[in-house]
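REQUEST FORM: STRUCTURE PREDICTION
Request ID: SP-0412
Submitted by: Lab K.M.
Chain count: 1
Length (residues): 344
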Amino acid sequence: MPEVCNVMVSNNKLLEGAIRQLESRLPPGWAIESLMGRGPVDAELRFTSSEGRSRSVPVEIKRRIDPRMASQLPLGPLWIVVAPYLSKSVREVLEERGASYADQTGNTRVVLDEPGLFILTTGADSNPWPDKRKLSLRGIKAGRVVRALAVKRPPVGVRELAELADTDPGYVSRLLRMLDSEAIVERTARGRVELVDWRRLLVQWSEDVPLEGRAETTTWLAPRGLKSVLDRLGSMEFPYLLTGSAAASRVAPVAPTRLLSVYVDDPSRAAEALGLRPADAGANVILLQPEDEAIYQRAIEVEGLRQASLPMIAADLLTGPGRSPAEAEALMDWMENNEEVWRG
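STATUS: Completed
RESULT:
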């Protein structure tokens, strides 16, 4: 979307785009028109049914909106929010507040009781016009902060979090501001973290940087089955961490494990020690070489095997193949009900 210097013209363009999106989704015989806003209202949209019944809805136009802003907007239940793009998190907040919305990519929701109207469509999953200045959860430092935030029970200050994540306080502070704007963390005026929505944090991390973006993967075949690999793994002296389905099944089993995922520092050496053969089709073992070897420092031991922390296992599964996302959800359900077990 091209930048427009004049804010009023820009808002008019956004409103016109929203009207086009909604017009194409109205039932036969319905109409929509824009009206001048009154007082603090940016504009109004009048919906008219095929029977001639009408309803005017106040419009809030935003050039940019994040979940925190969405939660604080002075909206009534019949307002409609218009923006260039509305992320899934923003849409969820607006839906919780009962508000309608429309963006330029086709993400729309309109709910009227009189005259009765319901529109719900999905547009883009990611922002076609991203803010290039915005931080993401990509990279080694971000991964360390995410893992530390997930396992550390609040409250926690910036310097303490930086020490836990082994990174600089300045970066941690900037990342926390971004997470605050996404309503993933809540902070005091001095910046201390008081609340972490660790489930949303892990989902956001997996979306920003899926597993293949955090580790180099190679696929292998265990000709004698996965049990033989697990039996050997316990006696190995090289660094390793069990993750994925095999690790999750020890806490929240969904189905028998058919794919074994293991972090190792040297996949070729590990494969030889574990009796694995290179394979594309029919592979039942994935060896992961992590971009950040610090993950080995926070290993936990379960039944004689070193495995990744539960938040990392969940994030790894969220973008995994087959039933991996369902296993991630089952694991996070267990984690929600047992925080005292895994959060320090």
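NOTES: The first strand starts at residue 31 and ends at 36.
Reviewed by: T.R.
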